[in-house]
Structure formats: structure tokens, C-alpha cells
Amino acid sequence: MKNKIKVYRAMHDLTQEGLATELGVTRQTVLAIEKGKYDPSLELAFRIARYFGVNIEEIFTYE
Amino acid sequence: MKQNSFYILAGIVGLVEVGLFYLSVEFLKPMLISVGFIAGVLILYAAQRLIADRRSDERSALINQKAGMATFMVFWVIFFAMSLGGAVIGFGAPRFPHPPPLKGEPGGFNASMSLPEGVAEATHAARDIPDDGLIRLGYFGYMQLALLFLMFFLYVGFRVYYARKYGEWETDEE
């Protein structure tokens, strides 16, 4: 699964730590998701999409 | 409670457990260390819930879950194999299931698990233990402890493996 979290994070001028705090996860989790090492749960994926105000498929794509 | 306070508390509980183990051996009271250990673990579990700055999320939960499951899958095979070996010794004993010794016979509970010459007698003389079968049963505890240490190291190994797999120590340009 690929994602554009890094792009959206840059658009919102957010650090990994900042996004992690907003989502209630650790910075390592945000980093692992960005690098494709970890696929988030559906709930966390929706939380990320909701935080950036977009649909989930705009951030996550299945390949 | 802070995470570091919890680690200090865990160290103190560990030292108390070592002391309890020493006293248990000294006074030959197995219940002392058994009850003490359970109490110590309950204290740590309760204290763990009070940690305010603990950072845990779904990824760390997944790592713990996977490491625990992998440990269990290896451990039960080893534990079952060792237990089967122990059962063979028990069932293969000539007088299973351990009737009282006949008059004039040596009083061992299992001829295939005999102690070195003179050890049981010396222990009897020192502590007045009624049944030396208990001493041999105590040796089973060594094997169980060895297996538990194996389980611990297996868990740590699998924990490191899955943590690496899910990017625990990844670095970034930030």
C-alpha cells in the first residue's frame, strides 16, 4: 500500500512528531507508515484522512 | 507515575524477589517465593496502568502480539517435547506410580532419576526432610526455569525482529 502522508504533511507544514501527537500515535508509527513499513488499521487511516480533510483514497492507494 | 519511576519500582520489586527466594531456600518454604512472586507481578501490573507518559499505539501492540504468538508457537513445541521426555521417565519407572517402599528396600521414588551417591542422605541429615522424592521434584524446577529463560530470550528475539520489520529504529531526514 502506498500513501501520500509525507506530501500532505508538508502541505500542512507538520512534523512527524506533530502529526503523531494529533493522531495519538508515536512518531515511529507515522515514520513507519510513510516508509511503507507498516500499514495502518482502517480506523487510523480514516483518522489520518479526516485530519487532512480529504477522502481516504486520496492518501492511501492499493497497488 | 512516570515511566522511569516504574523502572525503579520494577528494580526494587526484583531485589525483593531475590531476597524472598533466598529466605525460601534458607527456611525451605516454597510458598514464600511462590506467593511473593505472584504479589510482585500483580504490583507491577497495577503500577504499569498508572504510567502517565507511556506512548503505546496500534503498531507497538501489533509488534507485541506477533512476538508473543511466535514465542508461543516455538515454546509449546519445546515444552511439550521436554514434558513427554519427563513422562517417559515417570511411566518407565519400575514401580510407577510410586508405592511406599517395602521394608528393607531403598526409599527412592524413581530408580531412573537417582541422585549422586550420598546427596540425598546428607540433605536428609541436615534438614530432616521426610521424603527425598521432594528433593528430586525440586530439580524439575531447574528445567522449568531454564525453559522460562528460553521463552524470555525467544520473546526478546522475536520482539527485535518484528520491531525492525515494522520500522522501530528507522531514521528520517527530519
Topology overview:
The complex is a heterodimer of chains A (63) and B (174).
Chain A: E1 2-3, H1 5-11, H2 16-23, H3 27-34, H4 42-52, H5 56-59, E2 60-61
Chain B: H1 3-27, H2 30-49, H3 58-92, H4 119-127, H5 133-165
Helix pairs in contact in B: 1-2, 3-5
What is the compact description of this entry?
The complex is a heterodimer of chains A (63) and B (174). Chain A is mainly alpha-helical and 63 residues long.
Count up the domains of chain A. Answer: 1
Question: Percent of residues of chain B in beta strands?
Answer: under 5%
Q: Specify the CATH homologous superfamily of chain A.
A: lambda repressor-like DNA-binding domains
Secondary structure: number of strands of chain B: 0
- Terminal Cα separation of chain A, in Å? 6 Å
Helix content of chain B: over 70%
User: Average pLDDT value of chain B?
Assistant: 80
CATH architecture of chain A: Orthogonal Bundle
Strand order of the largest sheet of chain A: 1-2
Question: What gyration radius of chain B follows from the Cα positions, in whole Å?
Answer: 22 Å
Write down how many β-strands of chain A occur, each being a DSSP E stretch of 2 or more residues.
Answer: 2
Average pLDDT of chain A, rounded to a whole number, is 92
CATH fold descriptor of chain A: 434 Repressor (Amino-terminal Domain)
Q: What is the element string of chain A, with H for helices and E for strands?
A: EHHHHHE
Largest interface: A-B, 16 and 14 residues
